Q: What sequence folds into this?
């Protein structure tokens, strides 16, 4: 969460709740943003590390709010993050581990494991389609995020099929 | 799409629209025989959407071809709306298909020297519609599929996605009780796939029975039930159930850095 929050501060200072709102507006309901407590904890940590500084702003009718802004070190951290190529997503290998070790555990045969996993993926896919329908085309970032998740699921299912061909 | 799916004469109420019992296909040649489909029991209820998945060579297409009468079964039974059809002659099959089964394939199979409109109307005419009815049905379907402006075009002038939509319109032109689709999105890119899937979903919502062979997980996830075919046999047959609405998010599949 650290670097996305720092990136959100690159344009202008903001307080914690504004950051949460910005995240929600950007990613939509497809990607639930962290709760406000997590955001404040993260902000405290990056302040301790010298990447942001904060000051209390007095408000007339409401409690003071703490506004955060990037320090030069924070700005460097954001620039380095943006410039660096990112690792690809990690494949979830928990299922593959179960499948590979199933002859040892003896808990279920491989066909049963694969069938159960396929049902799970297809259920997830249906959930994503529903999410895409609800999100509509209004938020392009959100729609692309859902599409990315669908493409990964398709790859998971293709891999499952290869496992079925080779191991069953 | 308005209009009732046509019941097959002699159909009994309460029976599955499609049922296969011990359906088997053995291909023989050069002294070797290949058992492509090995005793498949399958049923599709009226209005049900069933998807068939499985590795290449698992017998999916052969199964569909037998059910559509394009390939004779080696043994087993096929029942369509209460009528046993596996023993029918080619000519009787052709009549049955024209009236009761719509087919969509991965390759669009449109008649290249006929216009889009004529491709769709021909199917309705073969199904017994009058010229006036065929035209009305064609206008309705092409309008619904966003192709009204392409009615007079030659199929070759259309994009792949548009051609597949025309193929779908043609398959639905005679109000078939059963729509059979074999990898209908196999040749399409993402946005055209989305169009065809949207249509399939709408067709299903309107009470059409659909039997779909696909590798596309999105297409399969729209089905009421998904069968997995493996080595010519049904390895799994289960309804598709999405997780609870509240727990569903893209982050369950794809985690952004955080």
A:
């Amino acid at each position: 969460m650290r670097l996305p929050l720092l990136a959100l501060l690159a344009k202008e200072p903001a307080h914690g709740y504004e950051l949460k709102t910005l995240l929600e507006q950007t990613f939509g309901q497809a990607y639930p943003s962290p709760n406000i407590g997590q955001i404040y904890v993260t902000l405290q940590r990056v302040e301790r590390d010298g990447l942001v500084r904060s000051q209390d702003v007095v408000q007339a009718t409401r409690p003071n709010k703490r506004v955060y802004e990037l320090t030069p070190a924070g700005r460097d951290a954001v620039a380095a993050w943006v410039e660096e190529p990112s690792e690809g997503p990690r494949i979830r290998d928990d299922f593959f581990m179960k499948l590979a070790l199933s002859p040892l555990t003896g808990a279920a045969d491989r066909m049963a494991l694969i069938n159960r996993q396929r049902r799970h993926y297809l259920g997830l896919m249906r959930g994503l389609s529903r999410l895409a329908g609800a999100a509509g085309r209004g938020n392009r970032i959100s729609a692309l995020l859902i599409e990315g998740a669908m493409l990964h699921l398709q790859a998971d299912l293709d891999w499952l099929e290869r496992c079925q061909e080779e191991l069953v | 799409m308005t209009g009732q799916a046509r019941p097959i004469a002699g159909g009994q109420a309460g029976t599955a629209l499609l049922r296969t019992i011990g359906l088997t296909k053995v291909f023989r040649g050069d002294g070797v025989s290949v058992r492509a489909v090995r005793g498949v029991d399958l049923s599709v209820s009226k209005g049900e959407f069933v998807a068939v998945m499985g590795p290449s060579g698992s017998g999916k297409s052969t199964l569909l071809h037998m059910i559509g009468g394009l390939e004779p079964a080696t043994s087993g039974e096929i029942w369509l709306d209460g009528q046993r059809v596996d023993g029918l002659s080619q000519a009787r099959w052709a009549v049955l298909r024209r009236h009761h089964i719509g087919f969509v394939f991965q390759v669009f199979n449109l008649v290249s020297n006929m216009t889009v409109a004529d491709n769709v109307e021909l199917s309705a005419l073969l199904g017994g519609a009058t010229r006036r009815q065929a035209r009305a049905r064609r206008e309705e379907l092409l309008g619904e599929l966003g192709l009204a402006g392409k009615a007079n075009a030659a199929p070759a002038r259309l994009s792949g996605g548009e051609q597949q939509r025309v193929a779908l319109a043609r398959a639905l032109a005679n109000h078939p009780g059963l729509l059979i689709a074999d990898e209908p999105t196999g040749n399409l890119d993402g946005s055209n796939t989305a169009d065809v899937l949207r249509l399939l979903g709408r067709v299903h919502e309107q009470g059409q029975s659909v039997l779909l062979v696909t590798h596309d997980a999105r297409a399969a996830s729209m089905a009421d039930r998904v069968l997995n075919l493996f080595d010519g046999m049904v390895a799994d047959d289960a309804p598709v159930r999405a997780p609870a609405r509240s727990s569903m998010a893209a982050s369950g599949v794809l985690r952004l850095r955080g």
Remarks:
- The CA atoms of residues 98 and 105 of chain A lie 9 Å apart.
- Chain A touches chain B through 41 residues (CB under 8 Å).
- The longest helix of chain A spans residues 140-167.
